[in-house]
Each structure stands twice: as structure tokens, then as C-alpha cells.
Amino acid sequence: MITKKPLFYWILTKYRGLQLFLLLLIIVSLFFKVYPLEMQRKIINIAINLKKLELLYLYCALYMGAVLLAGLIKYYINVLQSVIGQKILIHMRQQLYTHVLRMPLQFFHKTQAGIIISAMTSELNAVGNFLGGALAIPAASVLTFIAFLGYMIYLNPLLGVMTSLIYPFEFIVIPMLQKRYNILNRKRVRTTRSMANLVNESVSGIHEVQSNSSFQLEQNKLDTFITKFYTTMKGLFIFKYGIKFSNNFFQSLGPFLLFLVGGYLAINGQFTIGALVAFLSAYEKVYDPWKEIIMYYQDYQDAQVRYKQIMETFDMPEEILIDIPKDLETKTLKGKIEARDVGFQINEDVRLLEEINLDLEAGKHLALIGFSGSGKSTLANLLSQLLTHNEGTLKIDDYNIEDLSKLDIAQNLSTVSQHPFIFTGSVNDNLLYSCEALRFAGKDIDLPDRDTVIDMVREVGLEEDIIRWGFRSIIPLEKARGLADKILSMRRIVHETLRQEFEGVVEFYDAETFLEYSNIGQNIIFGEYADNNTSDFLATRKRFQTFLHTHDLEETLLQLGQNIAETTVTLLRDMRQDEFFFQGSPMEPNEFDRYADIIQKLKKQQSRDLEQKEKDDLLKLALRYIPGQHKIFTISESLRQTIVEVRSKYLLNVEHINIEQCKDGTIQQQIVPIDKMKEKEQEDENIFTPYCSSQYLYNHTLLDNVLFGTVIDRDAIRTQLGELALHHFSKEGLLDEIIEIGLDFHVGSKGDNLSGGQKQKIALARALLKKTPILILDEATSGLDNSSQTKVQNYINDNLKGNTTVVAVVHRLDMISEYDHIIVLKAGKIVESGTYDDLLAAKGVLYELVNENGESGE
Amino acid sequence: MSSSMKMENPENKAECKLTSDFEILRHSPVFSGIDTDVVKLFAYLAQRKKYRKDQAIISLGAETAEAYYLISGGASVSTLHAGKEYILQHLPPGTFFGELALLARFKWFFNVSAEEESDIMIITRESFKKVLDNFPLQRERLIEKIVQLRVERLIDQTSFLLDKVPDTLLVKGGTSI
Fold first, then answer.
1. What is the predicted ipTM?
2. Rounded CA gap, A199 and A114, in Å?
3. Of chain A residues 597-626, which have a CB less than 8 A from chain B?
4. Contact, B44 vs B4, CB < 8 A?
5. Which residues make Cβ contacts (< 8 Å) with residue A142, sequence separation at least 6?
6. Which of A200, A206, A203 is nearest to A114 (CA)?
7. A502/B contact by beta carbon, under 8 A
8. Closest Cβ–Cβ partner in B3, B18, B52 for A632
């Protein structure tokens, strides 16, 4: 098992060729490290001594060449070493993850996610950094060390032996310090994990934390670890730098001896200066491999500590037969289930199930009922091989369940639990998850096609949710292009067929009327720029300002901006901190001071004397102003008319669009075809979209695009008009497109954007799409509303009877009458077993439950 | 502050929403006598909404969030009893209703629907709270007014109902005064 493998298993079995090559490189580089020393000696003793310039040049060149080559080789060695480490790490992580995913459920119940995450990621990374040089570095360092030492002894045996005597001392001191360091290091890993866990927990439970305002409580929990971490780290550094200090001390001891003894010998003429210089260099060089050995030793200890802790975490055997033997096909089961005296207990004394006997023919439907804690879910989990029984025999189609591989189970059985897990991704990804999994496991199956998926979505009552998601989606341009016809058809239905119903609920973009719920900027240009802030963009745009000037609107709008600023500043002076109060004004809270300054300035001077930037700001306010929403001010009817009048001029003169083409609200040829928009986008031009009814609104939701106007009464759409419109879309066969868009809805991290019921519906569809002969439902519809529950139950009764064995843990007794067989559990034992009618006639537990339920239900 | 109210162009003074809503509120029973700065803020935060004939304004069982002031049109208050709907009161223009929603969260225990096309001003509980957070001294006074309004409504509704009650419910010996 992977967790039993020692750290060096990975190093000794993986990429041995590369590691050997690395070792060879290191040996080659050795030569180029010693060679410059010899050159140094020759430069001083021969070239300088004999005063031969050409020799000096030669030796210097050789010296430089060797140094350069040694450096280059070292550079390559470093890269190679890291690459080898990362390559080994890939294997290690893959195998470990494979192991982790296959571990029994009990492990995940008692191990916090934070531990698993930090073990799989950062801790393993740290080990990986060590792996690459694990063999080559010690070998190379020892060799280098010996080479330099040998060279020193060759130069002068006495001095050589003397300086090498220092090292044995270090062999005693450093491991001693290291041992203390290791203890603290293990503590550090533990503390870090606890911290990761705690943070993970409070982040996952952030709802609870914020609603209980338990900030201080959670903070205190973390504080204990923070303090612990601090003390540990402090100790760690004391020993780490202690080791460094002792190293440095011994290192400077060498030259001290050298100068003392070597100097004495040189003075007495027994030793040349050149040799002394070479010796000093050699001594310094000998220290490099020594340092590397020490560092290697520390890294090794560190990696070993981490590695052991990782492996201890996951040291639990995989319980289930995962893979089928290569020569066997996965089994195709019919779905007969048989249990003989099945029992399940977790510890010696906790018995969750005992003496379970049942026979279920393939295709029959079984309901499990009972109080909570009676063992219903446990039995369901035994059947889906998530737990393993420890007494009796449990068979599917005459195979013992424990002999079936995970793949056999996955191919023949689908499970939906009460709180199903939804993966980060789109709805569609989640619906196809089970089918995709089988394909990745090597099964040659076809993924369900779009129509099958849509049908299934309808069967489990998810259609409405998906349509809502579809409408909320902003469709990516490439997709929108293909859907242009459909979107325009829907728009036509709303604008023409249902015009009367939507009157007063949506303000349609009508070219001839003033738009009360669009801002002044949009009203003038009768359109918008793809960049969301149309009015701010316009306010500083020269072309637009010139247009306002030539049509005598500049002064009027500046006055409007001034009026808005003045009223807002006066009314909200004391409330400027609270964003809430800015709902009735186009001003943002953070702009308050700026506008207050402008108003102050205007008290002393005329508006024409303002700086351009200040004028722009006032214009901005006017252009952002939405008459129907911003109560701070009311504009005159005549200004409304003027704006509508200049609208066509703006479109024609500035954007070269004839407004006549936009009138009537009928759909015409697109003025800027959606296809062309992509090109414009690439030119990085802010795309102008006129509110002509054939246009696609870039960066808007599907709903915005269908309504093509401003929503005034959101509630009315949600409650009645939405349904009415859908009815019409459905008649025209347009719903499937919306569902298809909705299927791409992103469910958020772990499905956070979904309700409990939506998650269950997705899980149900996901399981049913797999079309397995056995279906296990563990209160799978508990989060659904009544009509969806009934819908799902009807689907099970109508479509799965006779072809799919269903075992359902049922919480609603009014749904069990359709089941072929009913088992009532109590405290881990079967108390009643039979058909619905038989059990009712027997007037036993079920009879009581049903009647009790009926009474309390009224 | 009052200068800002007069500052708008004279041509649209009459139709300025902020000013007209301010006038409406200032003369309403709840806000009469309340600091004008506070009333102005309420006028500023209030929303106008048009209801069509028979459109529901308040639905029984829904969460409360806002109070209503009937500016024009008409509305009726009704409730369900033993599966049947009974009208409790007709509301004329100039009436506040649903005012308890400003004070507390609960579920509506009656329906209100428009009897004809009606123009209604809406004040949300959130804005009520936000404004009074800034003017804490006015809170008590406003709450008192709201409770008084509620008591009047109760008396009105009770007499509306009693007019239709058979004499069998008459207290023994009770005579008209």
C-alpha cells in the first residue's frame, strides 16, 4: 500500500536513468571545480615567479574557462534536479490521490477536510522540492568534499590532515541540534494543519458564524493556534540559526589554523606562497560541499518529517475491490437483491442493523420506512456498497456484494442521497457527471443527448428552475449569434402578442416616446454602449458634447445636473454616509463631497466659469438621471419632448442610423448584425447598440433581451407574466432553447447558488440519466415541493416498474402505496415486511403510522 | 432645506413629485406635526405605484415590508373566514393602510385590493427605520400616531361589521342610546 512506502522508495524507483545522468554531470563538474585551484597555484608559483606574461595569460584563460564551465554545469544541474523532483512528485501525488479517493467513508467522517487538503497540496510540495536531488546531492557533495580534501593533502599532508580534523566535531554537534529542530518541526506541521482545519471550518460555516455573530468566538479558537505557532516557530528559528552559527564557527576555525601553521611554515621556507593561496582556496571550496551536506541533511530531515506525517494521515487500507481484473468484463446485473441475516456494527457495541432478511425480485420496488435512527439509510448505504456489512450475506444477482468491484456497482446502481453533493461547474456538467464517470472508467457508453437531458429535467421538476436560470444568463456572444432568431421570436411575442399585458410592467424601448425608466443619456442616444456605464462614457465624449452644444441642450443639461446636485447635497447632507439614502438620486455616496464643492463654488460664480472637469461631472449627473426612479428631481414635459426630438438627429448624424427603421416596434433587418459585433469588439471599440427592436443587447441577460425594455414591476413578471410568456414561448417551441441556456448555468462553488431542493432534483436527474438496473433513493425527494415530489414518484411508478429495482427510504407515507413491498424498521431490525395492503390489513405498526399521520395531517 | 424645494424651474413646480408627495404626507394624519425635515425624507424615499382595478395590493399570508397611502382611486380590505372572503372596509383616497408593517415583521392577516385604478404611495419598513435612526427623537411620536391610527381603524371596522350583525348578538338589556 502506498502509505507504507518509505520516502526513498520514490527516489530509488523513479527516473533512475535521469538521476544517474545527474550524478555523472556532478562528477564531471568536480574536475572543473578543482582545476581553477591548480591554476591559481601555477599563476603565483610559475607565471608570476618566473615573470612570464604568456604563461600568465594562458593560466588566467584556463582559470576563467574552467570557472565558467563549472558554473554552467551547476546551472544545468540545478534545473535538472528540480525537474526530476517535480516528475517524481507527479507520481506521488497521483497515487496518493487515487488512494485517498478510494478510502472507506469512515476515514472521511473522522478526518477534517483541511488536513487532507494541506497534506495533498503544500506539504507534498515541500517534499517534492527535496526529491530531485535526494540521491545526487549527497553523492556529489561527498565526492567533492573528498576531492578537495585530497587536493589539500596532496599540497601539504600535515596541513590537510589538520584542517580535516575539525569536521568530526561537527558530526556530533549538528545532529544534536537537528534532533531538537525535528521535534519542533513536527509540531509546526501539526499546528499548521489545525489552523487550516479551523479556517476551513469557519469558512464553510460562514452562515452560522455571521448569523450568530460569533466572530470573537472563532477568533479566539484561532488565537490559541496562532500563539502555539508563534512559540513553535520561535524555537525552530533558535535551532535553525544555532546550527548555522556552529557551522560558521567551525568554518572560521580552519583559516585560523591555516594562517597560524601555514604562515609559520612559509616564513621558514617550507611552504610556497602559491601553495598557501591554493590551500586557502581549497579550504574555502571544501566548505561548499560540506555546507551542502549539512543542508541536505536538514532538508532530508524536514522532508522525512512531512512525508511520515502525510502517510500516517492516509494510512488506512482501501476497503473495496476497486478495479476488476483485466481479463474480466464488468458485470451487467438484473437487479435481484437478497439479504440473509445481515448485520452492521461500527464499534464492538454499536449495532446499527441486525438480522436483516429480504428478497427483492429484479424490477420490483421496495420502500423502507421507520423512525429516524432505525437504520433505513444504513441499509441503503450497504446496498450501494458505501458501507460494508459485517454479518450475514448480502447479494445482488447471486453475487456477494463485497465481491463486486466499484465499477460493477457504478455501472449497475445509482444512488441519490438526502443531501447530494453538487460539483462546481454548470448544471449540465453535474447532470452528466455519472455518465461521464463511467466513460472515464473505460466504459463505452454514449452520453445522453440534449433531448434526453431536457426530458429528464422535466421529469424531476427541474424545468422551471432551469428556465429561470436561462433567463438570468448572459449568453456568450458566439452562442447568442446562433440564437438570434429565437431571441427575436420571443421578443416579438412579448412586444406584439402580449403587448397589452406587459403595459405598465415593462417600459418598451419606443423610439417616439420619452423613456421614464431609462436615463437621460439613453433617452438622447436611444441606445447604449456595451460598456455598462453608458451615461458616464457619453459625458466625457467630445462628439456627444458637440452634439449637445449644436442642439442647445448643453446649458439645459448642465442646469439639470446642477439642480440635482444642489437638491441632493441639501437633502442628504446628514445622511451622506448611508448608501440607502442615495436610491432616489443619480449621485453616488462617494461623490457627495465633490458635488458639494461644486455647488459651493457655484454660489460665488456662474456655471460657465466652471472648469471643464466640473462641467463634465454635472453633465454626468444629468445623463445618469432616471426620471421614473430618481425622485430627487422632476423634469419638465417640454424637456422630455426636446429630448425625443433630438433623438433621431443623434442617431442619424452621429451614429448614421435612420430612426425610421426602428419605429413600429416590428422586427426588421438588423442594423448591426450580431455577426459583425465580434469584429467590432476586436477593434476594442465600445459597441453602440441602438434600441431598435431587432438589436441584441450586448452584456445583458436573456430576460433583458426578450423584454427589450426596462422592467418597472419585477413582481408582476415573477408572479404572473413570466408564466404567461412561457406558455406562449412553449407553443412556438422556444422553450428548449431557454432550457439549453439554463443548463449552462454555473451552480457556484459546491452548488452554493442552488437551494436544497434544486440540488436534489439535479442529483435525481443525474442518477436517472445513468439508467441503471438498480436505483437507491435515500429520502431523495425530501427537499422538493409537493408537486415535484408527486411528479418524481409518478415517474418512478410509470417508467421504472418492472425494469428497475428501486429501494427507497421514504419519509412520506402517502407515497408508499405504489411500492411492491414495504419494510418497516425499528432500532435496526425489521418489524414488519409485506405488501402495503397486507400490512394495513394486519393493523400493525404501518397501520398505526399511516393513521396517525393521516390524523395529524388534517 | 426649504429653499431647495422652491428651487425647481417654475414651469414644473406643480408636477414636481418630491414636493407634491411632501405636501400629501405633511397633511396626512400620521405625519402632521412631524418635523418637516423628516417628512421630506419620507417623501423622497416613498415610491409611487399604479394599481389596476382588482389588482392585489396586500395579499394575506405574505411577509410585511411596506405601508401604503392611497392617493387616488379606492381599495377594499377583506379577509378569509371559514373558506369565504368577507369585506371589512372600503378605503377612500387619503387613507393610510398597512401602517403596522412599519413597526414589526409579521404576515398580512388581510387582503387589500384596488377597487378601481389607484395611485398609491409606498413607504418601506427599511426606509422608516433608516430615517428614524437619523432622527431618534421623532420615533416615539410617530409610533404613537401609528398606534392611534390603528385604533381608529379598528373602531371603524368594528362598527362597519356591527352594522351588519344580527340583533341576536345584542347584549341582554342593551338598548340604543
1. 0.83
2. 8
3. none
4. no
5. A289, A293
6. A200
7. no
8. B18
Tens digits of residue pLDDT in A204-222: 888 888 888 888 888 888 8
CB neighbours of residue A395 within 10 Å: 18
Query: Phi/psi at B135 (nearest 5 deg)?
Result: -130, 65
Number of H helices, E strands in chain A: 38, 14
For residue A516, which phi and psi values (nearest 5 degrees)? -65, -30
Provide the angle, in degrees to the nearest 10, between the axes of the packed helices B125-134 and B36-45. 150
State the cell numbers at A188.
509546526
Contact A4, A63 (CB under 8 A): no
Return the DSSP state at A330. P
Beta carbons within 10 angstroms of residue B137's beta carbon: 9
In sign, the C-alpha dihedral spanning B155, B156, B159, B160 is negative
| Cα distances (angstroms) measured from residue A461 to each of A734, A785, A786, A821, B135 | 18, 9, 11, 26, 50
For residue A154, give the H/E element and its range: helix A136-155
> What angle, rounded to 10 degrees, do the helices at A157-164 and A166-204 form?
40
Q: Which residue of B has its CA nearest to A627?
A: B17
Alpha carbon B30 to chain centroid distance?
9
3-state secondary structure A528-556: EECCCCHHHHHHCCHHHHHHHHHCCCHHH
**Cβ separation B45–A638 shorter than 8 A:** no
For residues A796 and A495, is the Cβ–Cβ distance under 8 A? no
- Count of CB atoms within 10 A of residue B61's CB? 9
Alpha helices in B1-89 (DSSP H): 2-6, 17-26, 36-45
CA distance A692 to A672: 10
Write the DSSP assignment of A587-646 as a string of letters. Answer: --GGGHHHHHHHHHHHTTS-GGGS-HHHHHHHHHHHHH--TTT-TT----HHHHHHHHHH
Widest pairwise Cα distance in chain A = 122
CA distances from A476 to A66, A427, A697 (A): 60, 16, 12
Q: What is the mean pLDDT of the segment spanning A632-654?
A: 90
Q: How far is CA A383 from the centre of its chain?
A: 32
Q: pLDDT (tens digit, 9 = 90+) per residue, A77-125?
A: 889 988 998 999 999 999 999 888 888 887 888 888 878 888 888 888 8
Cα distance between residue A238 and residue A244, in whole Å: 10
Number of residues assigned to chain B: 177
Residue A134 DSSP symbol: T
Report, in this order, helix, strand and coil percent for chain A, each rounded to 5: 65, 10, 25
Question: A399: helix, coil or strand?
Answer: strand
**Nearest CA to B69 among B105, B33, B20?**
B20
Which alpha helices (DSSP H) does A667-773 contain, by range?
674-682, 702-707, 714-716, 722-731, 735-743, 756-769
Is the per-residue pLDDT at B21 higher than 50? yes
User: Could you give the CA distance from residue A503 to residue A474 in angstroms, rounded to a whole number?
Assistant: 25
Q: Whole-model pTM?
A: 0.71
How would DSSP label each residue in B29-75?
TTTTTS-HHHHHHHHHH-EEEEE-TT-EEE-TTSBP-EEEEEEES-E
Backbone angles phi, psi at A489, to 5 degrees: -65, -45
Give the closest residue to A758 by CA, choosing from A429, A443, A420: A420
Are the beta carbons of A832 and A824 closer than 8 angstroms? yes
Q: Which three cell numbers stand for residue A578?
A: 448611508
Q: Which of A578, A632, A635 sits opposite B130 (nearest CB)?
A: A578
Closest CA to B49 of B73, B25, B27: B73
Burial (CB < 10 A; 0-12, 13-18, 19+), residue A791, is buried
Amino acid at A532: N
Segment B152-170 shows an average pLDDT of 82
Contacts of B41 in chain A (CB under 8 A): 571, 575, 581
Partner-chain contact B1 A566, CB within 8 Å: no
> Hey, is A811 helix, strand or coil?
coil
C-alpha A500/C-alpha A494 separation (Å) is 9
Between CA B21 and CA B31, with CA B26 as vertex, the angle to 5 degrees is 115
